């Protein structure tokens, strides 16, 4: 029983980490309808910028937690204003191709600047200890990640469903011309959402770096898991993303413990079953014609 509890808490921590990484992607797709395949690269840039701030320049983790996501947000702003905004009327295929190409550009840029070696960031000293729960010892930082994921999920849900900005954004996705006629600059709103998605990607990179590390192709591995979470939860649903991240995190943790050879197969099998059962995901809205 103690082993099961330990694996469950580890899985919950990993699931919350997946949510922190994926929520920006879910937000951008759910509101803008843009499947940003460069999201993993923005996550990677957040982790590498945090590495430079903490290791190369010697600042604290907390400075990196502020500066790195803001740096990625600025990068997202440049991408949206100079490239992505021209594709809004061209359809999803052009956005997928554009962001996929950007992912490879940022991949090569990261290798040029930081090299291809495996790097790491230390856990902040404030959370470097451990906590005993039911006789099992857990790293304090992993428990903090659970708390961060919960706070972030509640905050995003509240913004999306209980604020004027959330109402404007949802209405803008349904009928941007009508919202524009009411005097709302929907293009500015969309830019803010994409920048927020970039900020969250960078934030996820900083939070995840002490646990997952930094290594070549980290952005593509992360993107695959993020897309799995997004599809299982329902495209664009913050609540669905939160639920799916926990399911995937716990299932993969138990899979690595019990049958490590097929742990990833279990995740993709789960995704296939859910898509057969509910093609729009666990909590996604079903798209209807007409």
TrEMBL record:
The chain crosses the membrane at residues 12-35, 55-78, 90-106, 112-133, 140-159, 179-212, 224-251, 257-277. Keywords: Amino-acid transport, Cell membrane, Membrane, Transmembrane, Transmembrane helix, Transport. It is found in: Cell membrane. It comes from Aliibacillus thermotolerans. Coiled coil: none annotated. The keyword Transport applies. The keyword Acetylation does not apply. This is Branched-chain amino acid ABC transporter permease.
């Amino acid at each position: 029983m103690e082993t099961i509890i330990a694996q469950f808490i580890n899985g919950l921590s990993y699931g919350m980490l997946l949510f922190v990484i994926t929520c920006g992607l879910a937000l951008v797709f759910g509101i803008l309808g843009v499947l940003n395949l460069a999201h993993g690269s923005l996550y990677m840039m957040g982790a590498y910028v945090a590495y430079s701030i903490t290791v190369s320049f010697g600042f604290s983790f907390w400075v990196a937690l502020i500066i790195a996501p803001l740096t990625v947000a600025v990068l997202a702003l440049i991408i949206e204003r100079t490239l992505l905004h021209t594709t809004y009327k061209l359809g999803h295929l052009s956005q997928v191709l554009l962001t996929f190409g950007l992912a490879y550009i940022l991949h090569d840029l990261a290798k040029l600047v930081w090299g291809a070696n495996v790097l790491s960031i230390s856990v902040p000293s404030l959370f470097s200890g451990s906590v005993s729960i039911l006789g099992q010892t857990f790293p304090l930082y992993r428990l903090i990640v659970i708390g961060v994921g919960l706070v972030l999920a509640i905050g995003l849900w509240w913004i999306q469903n209980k604020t004027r900005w959330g109402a404007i954004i949802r209405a803008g996705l349904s009928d941007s011309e009508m919202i524009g006629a009411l005097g709302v600059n929907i293009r500015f709103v969309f830019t803010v959402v994409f920048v927020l998605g970039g900020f969250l990607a960078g934030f996820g990179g900083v939070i995840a770096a002490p646990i997952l590390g930094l290594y070549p192709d980290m952005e593509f591995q992360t993107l695959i898991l993020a897309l799995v979470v997004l599809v299982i939860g329902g495209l664009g649903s913050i609540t669905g993303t939160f639920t799916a991240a926990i399911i995937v995190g716990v299932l993969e943790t138990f899979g690595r413990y019990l049958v490590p050879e097929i742990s990833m197969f279990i995740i993709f099998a789960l995704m296939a079953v859910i898509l057969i059962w509910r093609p729009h995901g666990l909590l996604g809205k079903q798209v209807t014609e007409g």
